[in-house]
Amino acid sequence: MFVHQADSDDPFRLQTLAAGQRRDILVDGPYSALPDVSAVGEIVFACRPADTFGLCTVRLDGTGFAAVASDADARDWQPVWSPDGLTVAFVSDRDGDDEIYVIDRDGTNLRQLTVNSAKDAGPAWSPNGSQIAFTSQRDSTDAVWIMDADGADPRRVIGGTRPAWSPDDRSLAHHAVSVTGVSIAVTHIESGETRLVSD
Q1: Does residue 19 or residue 6 have the better pLDDT?
Q2: Which residues have a Cβ under 8 Å from the Cβ of 139 and sit 6 or more positions away?
Q3: Are 83 and 132 in contact (CB under 8 A)?
Q4: Which pTM was predicted?
Q5: For residue 50, is pLDDT > 80?
């Protein structure tokens, strides 16, 4: 089973898809996009419950809907659960440009992790929850960066976008962009060795 946003109607709505069968999670719910499911079956997604573009959560059975992050003057989006399902990393332009933030699952303890004039986006938690990978344009081009889960020690890994961790926390799959197009590559974090897995 997987959760996706169905865009056949306006607004988008959340659905599960299992064995070829679709089922609405939220009926007459808010605009819903970019869902991510925690290990315990709770969905976080970008939503528009009122006039703001914030973050909401709901259980897979459609119960327990809650708005957990919103700012009337900002856009909160690209939410992803921490491995333990207690924290959400997301992107927001609350300070004027896209930065990475985290918030506890109940909407408390909001923390800004990145602070710079470049666009930071696409957070991805390491499987052990100790680090977050993301895409940043802080060196004037798209690159994959990693930082500690509290925002400390940000460091550039390689040029590219859309990082995803290996199960052992040692490598990152990512989009490698060149003049000939986009490939998928895997980079070992410690050695920097990169290999293309598609072209």
Answers
A1: 19
A2: 156
A3: no
A4: 0.89
A5: no
